[in-house]
Amino acid sequence: MVFDFLRKGRDEALELEAKASATGPVMAYASAGRVAWTPRDTGSLTRQGFAGNPVGFRAVKLISEAAAALPLVLQDERQRYAQHPLLRLVTTPNSGQGKADLFEALYGNLLLSGDGYVEAVSGGTSVPAELHVLRSDRMRVIPGPDGWPAAYDYMVDGRRHRFDVTGGVSPICHVKAFHPQDDHYGLSPIQAAAQAVDVHNSASRWSKGLLDNAARPSGAIVWTGADGQGAMSNDQFARLRDEMETMHQGARNAGRPMLLEGGLDWKPMGFSPSDMEFQKTKEAAAREIAVAFGVPPMLLGITGEATYANYQEAHRAFYRLTVLPLASRVTAAVGRWLSSHLGEVIELKPDLDQVPALAQERDAQWSRVSGADFLTPAEKRRMLGLPELPQEDDGE
């Protein structure tokens, strides 16, 4: 009996070992127990591409607000819940935020850094008492010996709090975007659009420089001295420069006539072909930023964009290709994580029947499914994403 017990324990250990990924020890070889630092500066990208760029700001706001406003449903294999502790938790995650606020912050962090983190505050029961979104630029992954995260460090001004995730239920839900070259962090759209953001910001600064100089290239002042002298003295040059800056530059002095002394001649300049192309470069950069985020440029008011036949078609494509895939993946990850706390298999997903932009498509799908006489009611409900009815389980 003793040998059987030892053999059983050894077999269980081998079974657990067989379920582990073979690449885990390779990933953890050089980083076990140490912080896996993110390979990008999230703070700089956020300042330049979100806080300092109108196209990036509007793209992130459009996606995060649209995805956070989607109605959510909670269901299992048997029923869709109208009331449930997890549904109440998602609706009122904490005292300072509602569902839309929490998910908007989660989607925003995911779009700006490629990673989103949700903390569960224990309330003494299986259901967490509160949910909080943590800033992704402050979170660091601590890989374990098997290559998977063993802990998360949240750092603020040199102070650190470590979340241990080696237990049965993790206090942190880490949602990350796909990154082909990083095992622990995701790739954000704003990083892919970083060059386009730099071009767009540089073009905006160039336009601001034109406004500061009467909204056009100012021209040149040519010095023709006595006896063919082509150079001014240092004192003359400094005096002329100071007078130009004081009397003729800036919006306050726009339109003021220029007074020139003997030997100075004004040569006005027009826009060169390269100056005319600069604005087109800015518009092309704006379209690249929109493409990286998956927002139709028409929705951002970018001129010269007529990919979609009308605004309604662009709006529907925005929901179908960008908002719904993101919301479905994030809510599914949050649902699995909350299910681990509860100990039950619960599915959290967007309610597609309540999305106004997809009403026409849903009506057509309902008509096709309901008119298919060769399908049973149970098959029709599964095609529409609905749980089975209790009487169907009993064979009625």
- String of helices and strands: HHHHEEHHEEEEEEHHEHEHHEHHH
Domain unit count: 2
The strand order across the widest sheet is 2-1-11
Low-confidence spans: pLDDT under 50, at least 5 residues?
A: 8-18, 392-396
Shape: elongated
What is the CA–CA distance across the termini?
A: 50 Å
Number of strands: 11
Output the radius of gyration: 30 Å
Strand content: 5-15%
- Treating each run of at least 4 consecutive H or I residues as one helix, how many helices? 14
SS-derived structural category: alpha+beta
Let me know the largest β-sheet: 3 strands, antiparallel
The percentage helix is 40-55%
Mean pLDDT: 81
Organism: Salipiger pallidus
Protein name: Portal protein
Brief sketch in words of this structure:
With 396 residues, this protein is α+β, with helices and mostly antiparallel strands. 46% of the residues lie in helices and 14% in strands.
